[in-house]
Specification:
Blueprint lengths: L1 H26 L23 E12 L2 E7 L11 E5 L5 E5 L9 E7 L9 H9 L5 E8 L9 E7 L3 H13 L3 E8 L8 H8 L3 E5 H4 L15 E5 L2 H10 L21 E5 L3
Parallel strand pairs: 7-8, 7-10, 8-9
Antiparallel strand pairs: 1-2, 1-6, 2-5, 3-4, 3-6, 10-11
């Protein structure tokens, strides 16, 4: 009887966690999720050498998203999780995650979603979409990394919309290392989720896609069962960040890397590591 009571209590606790996560996600909207800008944890304080790069390629990996290939000489090496400062023609400076291949030493790849003003865009995102075409020269600084991929026996990645950009190089690195990993990728719709085909092909059965227009909000209650020592990374809007933090097992302090909403952005990014 005592064993049965323990099982019943555990099941009840898990149900309460799932309900709490659902309530938090329903009161804190997941969307929109624009590009990652305006960090508040000290990112950007260090000195970096500005350099000129050329917009050598421009594609659209999803509705409302533009990917830029920025080519240059002598570009510093980088690791998954790194960002660059992009100096726009107006003088605005915005930070964007590098989402390409670190082995590609001749170019950096970034992606940004057009957000605000009725999706006609505003601020940095609008300037990127309207003015940064192939052949345009821009200035960058960096890269720097406040969101590094740590060594761990296993990984769980949670990405919301354009928040896949810093996660994508991490997935490739984890896969190349033969690490155990799983990705939960959620978004407003499949059409608006960049790099969806790549992450599905990369992960095989380890990628779970949740499109809100098809399945509603993701069930993060499963994070309550993540084994100790697993590194959990998440990049997405505030609602998703809060929900992931609430779903983690009690007593495990998350490590956070935040990018706050500015008047022209509203993106968030963070890392959670389950410590031993």
């Amino acid at each position: 009887m005592a064993r049965f009571a323990s099982v019943a209590l555990a099941a009840g606790a898990a149900l309460l966690v799932r309900r709490a996560v659902r309530r938090r996600m329903s009161t804190a909207p997941l969307w929109p999720m624009p590009a990652l800008d305006e960090p508040v944890s000290g990112y950007g304080r260090g000195r970096t050498v500005p350099r000129k790069v050329l917009v050598a390629g421009r594609t659209s990996p999803a509705e409302g998203v533009v990917e830029l290939r920025l080519e240059g000489t002598g570009l510093p090496a980088w690791q998954p999780g790194a960002h660059i400062d992009l100096v726009l023609p107006s003088g605005l400076v915005r930070q964007y995650s590098l989402c390409g291949d670190p082995a590609d030493t001749g170019a950096y790849t970034v992606a940004t979603r057009l957000v605000g003003a009725g999706q006609g865009g505003r601020g940095g995102s609008r300037e990127v979409h309207e003015q940064l075409h192939a052949g345009v020269e821009v200035e960058i600084r960096g890269p720097r990394n406040r969101f590094p991929l740590v060594d761990a026996p296993a990984y769980v990645f949670v990405a919301g919309g354009i928040g896949i950009t810093p996660v994508l190089p991490m997935l490739r690195a984890a896969e190349a290392a033969g690490a155990d990993w799983h990705l939960l990728y959620c978004g407003r719709s499949r059409a608006t989720m960049p790099y969806l085909a790549e992450v599905e092909a990369l992960g095989g059965g380890r990628t779970t896609v949740v499109a809100e227009d098809e399945s509603g909000l993701p069930d993060l209650g499963l994070l309550a069962d993540v084994p100790e020592g697993t590194a959990v990374y998440c990049c997405g809007p505030d609602g998703l960040m809060d929900a992931v933090g609430a779903a983690l097992p009690e007593g495990r302090t998350p490590r956070l890397e935040r990018f706050s909403a500015s008047a022209t952005t509203g993106g968030t990014a963070f890392e959670v590591e389950l410590r031993r």
